[in-house]
TrEMBL record, chain A:
Source organism of this protein record: Ornithinibacillus salinisoli
Protein name per the record: DUF1648 domain-containing protein
Transmembrane found in the keyword field: yes
One of the Pfam families matching this protein, by short name: DUF1648
Domain DUF5808: 327-352
InterPro entries reported for this sequence: DUF1648, DUF5808, UCP032908
Domain (DUF1648) ranges: 151-198
KW Transferase (keyword) present: no
TM spans (from-to): 6-26, 54-78, 84-105, 143-163, 192-212, 238-262, 268-289, 350-369
Automatic annotation (TrEMBL), chain B:
PANTHER family per UniProt: GNTR-FAMILY TRANSCRIPTIONAL REGULATOR, HTH-TYPE TRANSCRIPTIONAL REPRESSOR YTRA
Organism: Ornithinibacillus salinisoli
Listed name of the protein: GntR family transcriptional regulator
Sorted UniProt keywords: DNA-binding, Transcription, Transcription regulation
Pfam (any one): GntR
CDD domains the UniProt entry points to: WHTH_GntR
Length: 371, 131
């Protein structure tokens, strides 16, 4: 494994490590390690220490992974396949181990809540909603994605017009050095893989934008007006991020497709995807840091958090504090408990259809078209 | 308008919903013609069964507080709420009856009762901010 590969892997892993470590600080202050708490207790020394410990433990784990990579890089001569197996294994191990660390903290948090039962559950549990919430502009328009569709159609037309110029073998996979490692034979179907993926991904981004606008209204009881405004900011920022990322991604795919027809500087072909991934990961981290889950980190002037009110305590519907199962709730999408973003109500069959459909299409399109 | 529901309360959720929407109209936080969320989206936002919201909306519709259009969705009755008639006065009397009876049993004087009722009535007339 040479140094560039090692450096690239590090570049991918670091943002993942950072975003895992700081999740407890990015989630809502009414939730701690998947357990709902009164907002005031977020600032208690006990919870402060727990968050610090979590950062420490996941941080040490990340360092171990990096050390392991360094070890492999120095002592083993691995081919492309070996690197991807090791990398896949390490990532998988990291996900499992961070989940176990989370579970440990979740368990501790649950015990803490039980022990403080009388103090924390004294006040009644309220749900506040604003009847005018959905009359506001929650996301940016899906019409922005017409740009993506135009790019995809433009790419298809160019491809078909220049079909003769396309080499007989189309690259399907690149290694880290930018060399082609897997080809498929040229046909009218196979040259359309990328443009069709563009359409698929744009539809996926539209779905995400719809999820952002439809997701359950979650307003803090202590300060409904302010938390609602923050939530609107949260949705709009992520919507803008999704739209920009979606358009940039389709543009990048077009560049790759056009490189089949026109000579494009190979350096550019490695730099652009790298720059794109950096932009997306760093953008997501910056957004998480400045906005927080549900807009909880959006800067506000008013001070709040004085009473012991608990937002609706729906802990029993959150399996392991992470997976929402509530048969009586018609909501399909809602904010994650632990992390930034949205998740599904897994008691809703449609959730499963959507997730399975997305995976099948993603795997099926390249497979069917390259047959 | 903010609706706040107490899941621990003995009062059923749909009754709480009905009372809060009527209170919203009384306080003029909901104006005639204003749109309310659809049954599905309100149920999803609160996290309760569709039937619960439906039940509340049906009751409000029957009493003339809201209209449910197939296309336009749910709106606060644009012509205003039907004014009190004989049957409403009868219902009011029937509702007050047990309250007064219990107050007398518990030694609440007529003055106390009337002052409280007056204060509550005034509260509805105050606009937000003029506390």
């Amino acid at each position: 494994m040479d140094n560039t590969v090692f450096f690239l892997l590090l570049l991918i892993l670091l943002p993942v490590f950072i975003s895992t470590m700081f999740i407890p600080y990015w989630t809502r202050k009414t939730e701690s390690f998947g357990v709902s708490i009164p907002e005031t207790y977020y600032y208690s020394t006990n919870l402060k220490q727990m968050r610090k410990k979590y950062v420490l433990q996941t941080g040490v784990l990340g360092l171990f992974i990096i050390a392991f990579l360094v070890f492999i890089a120095t002592f083993f001569q691995l081919n492309e396949e070996g690197v991807s197996i090791y990398f896949g294994g390490l990532t998988f191990g990291y996900i499992i181990l961070t989940f176990l660390i989370y579970l440990h903290f979740h368990q501790k948090m649950k015990e803490l809540k039980e022990n403080n039962g009388e103090k924390w559950a004294q006040k009644s549990q309220l749900v506040v909603i604003d009847t005018g919430f959905r009359n506001q502009k929650l996301t940016y328009s899906n019409f922005w994605f017409t740009i993506s569709f135009f790019i995809a159609i433009f790419t298809m037309v160019i491809t078909m017009q220049n079909y003769q110029q396309i080499p007989l073998e189309i690259p399907m996979k690149y290694n880290f050095a930018g060399d082609v490692t897997n080809f498929t034979e040229k046909s009218y179907r196979s040259v359309l893989i990328l443009p069709i993926m563009q359409v698929y991904l744009t539809l996926l981004f539209i779905l995400i934008n719809i999820i952002i606008s439809k997701a359950k209204q979650q307003v803090s009881v202590e300060n409904p007006k302010e938390s609602m405004q923050k939530n609107v900011t949260f949705r709009r920022r992520w919507s803008a991020f999704i739209i920009i990322t979606g358009i940039a991604l389709t543009a990048m795919f077009s560049m790759i497709q056009l490189s089949l027809i026109y000579p494009i500087n190979p350096q550019l072909m490695t730099i652009v995807p790298l720059a794109f991934s950096l932009f997306v990961t760093i953008g997501a981290i910056v957004l998480s840091f400045t906005t927080g889950q549900g807009g909880s980190r959006v800067v506000s002037k008013e001070a709040f958090g004085k009473e012991n009110i608990i937002d609706r305590d729906d802990d029993k519907y959150w399996k392991l504090g992470m997976f929402y199962f509530n048969k009586n709730d018609p909501a399909l999408f809602l904010e994650k408990r632990f992390g930034v973003g949205w998740t599904n109500n897994w008691a809703h069959p449609l959730s499963w259809f959507i997730i399975i459909g997305i995976i099948l299409l993603a795997a099926g399109i390249p497979f069917l078209l390259s047959l | 308008m903010y609706i706040s529901l107490d899941f621990e309360s003995k009062e059923p959720i749909y009754t709480q919903l009905v009372h809060q929407i009527i209170a919203g109209i009384a306080k003029e936080e909901l104006s005639p013609g204003e749109a309310l969320p659809s049954v599905r989206s309100l149920a999803a936002d609160i996290g309760i069964n569709l039937h619960t919201v439906n039940k509340a909306y049906q009751q409000l519709k029957q009493e003339g507080f809201i209209l449910i259009h197939r296309q336009k969705g749910v709106v606060i009755n644009p012509d205003g709420v039907p004014q009190a008639d004989e049957s409403y006065m009868e219902k009011l009397e029937a509702n007050l009856h047990p309250l007064i009876a219990e107050s007398i049993c518990r030694g609440v004087s007529k003055d106390e009762f009337l002052t409280l009722a007056g204060q509550l009535y005034e509260k509805f007339k105050q606009k937000e901010g003029e506390v």
